[in-house]
Amino acid sequence: MLPLAWAAALAPWLVQPVAAQTAPGAPSVPAPAPVADAPPALKSSPRLTDPPEGEAAQQRPVLLQADKLTVRPDIDAVAEGAVEFRRAGTAIRADRLSYDSASDTATARGRVEIQRPGVRYRGSELQLQVQRFEGFFQQPEFELFELGSGGKAERIDFLDSARSRLQKAVYTSCPRDDGQGPDWLLRTDRVRLDLAANEGVAEGAVLEFLGLPLLALPKVSFPLSDARKSGWLPPTIVPLDSRNGTTVSVPYYWNIAPNRDATLTPTVLTRRGLALGSEFRYLEPAHSGQLKLHLLPYDRDTGTSRHALQLDQQGQVPVLAGLGGSGLRYSLKAYQVSDDAYWKDFSQTVPTTSPRLLPRDARAEQDLATPWGAVTAYARVQHWQVLQTGSGDDLIVAPYRRSPQLGLRAAPLLPLGLRAALETELNHFDRPDGSASATLPTGWRWHALGSLSRPFGNAGWWLTPKLSLNAASYRIDQADAALRRHTRVIPTTSLDAGMVFERDSRWFGRALRQTLEPRLLYVRTPYRDQSQLPLFDTAERDFNTVSIYAENAFSGIDRVQDAHQVTAGVTSRMVDAATGGELLRLGMAQRIRLREQRVVVSGEPQSQRFSDVLFDASTPVFNPWRLDAALQYNPDSSRVVRSILGARYTPAPFHTVSMGYRLARGLSEQAELGWQWPIYRGTSRPVGASGGCGGTVYGVGRLNYSMKDSRLTDSIVGVEYDSACWIGRLVFTRLSTGRAEAHTQISVQLELSGLSRIGANPLQVLKDNIPGYRLLRDTPGQPFSRFDP
Question: Which residue ranges does the record annotate as region Disordered (predicted)?
Answer without folding.
Answer: 22-58
